[in-house]
Every structure is written in C-alpha cells, then in structure tokens.
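Example (one chain per record):
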Amino acid sequence: MTNESGATNALPAHLAPNRFRIFLEDLDLPVDIGFHDFEIGTPQRLRVTVQLEVDETHFPSSDRVAEAWNYDLLRSAILRMAEGRRFNLQETFAREVYALVAARPGVLAIRVVTSKPDVYADCAGVGVEISSL
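Predicted structure:
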C-alpha cells in the first residue's frame, strides 16, 4: 500500500505513531508585563513556546492544505492577546495562552512556556511553564 507521495505505508505495528504533537517555539514578542514601577508601560521581550498534542483526527493525514493546523492563527492569536492588555505576571499570561489553545478542537494536552530573556545578564531567561503533557 502507498500513500499520496508514493511512499510505502508498511510500518511495523510497534512503530505506529501514537502521539501527534504540534509546536510554536520561541515566539519573541513585546509584552507590557511586570509589576515593578520601572516595568509598567515599558514593553519587555517575552518568549513563548506552545506545544500541543492533538488527537489523530485533527492531525493531517494527507498533504492537503485543508487538513493543516494553521500556525498563523495560533501565532496571531497570541500576538493579539499580548497587544490587547498589560500583564503583571508571566503566570497570568501563560494561563491565558493555555486557555486559548485548550479551546481548539482536538487538543489533548498542552505545554506553555514563557520566558523573559532580558531580566538578568547572567542567565538565558526567567519564566514559567504550565503543562498537561
């Protein structure tokens, strides 16, 4: 048996996929975030990574665009959320991204990581993670 690209679908049973993950890694965006006086009103760089596991029916099984997970929608929804308000805490921002992704059909599990890369000169970043993965 062959698929649309002509490749053979003769996978051994023990190698059949059982997880279908999609991710957006290190989206770098300006966010008005922080509770210190010097942070308020001064957007900071925030990095966001979102990983999600979807059920097989929501993961493309062919090379048709109609089946694709639209990364643009995910990215633009996070950007709109960041532009639309200010946040005191990364934890709040991460929870809102998590809820945004959780509302999508077929999502089984989620991981959201946020990080402020410019807080300390001696570390890559400070951040939070929320995950059901």
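Caption: Helices lie at 71-84, 90-102.
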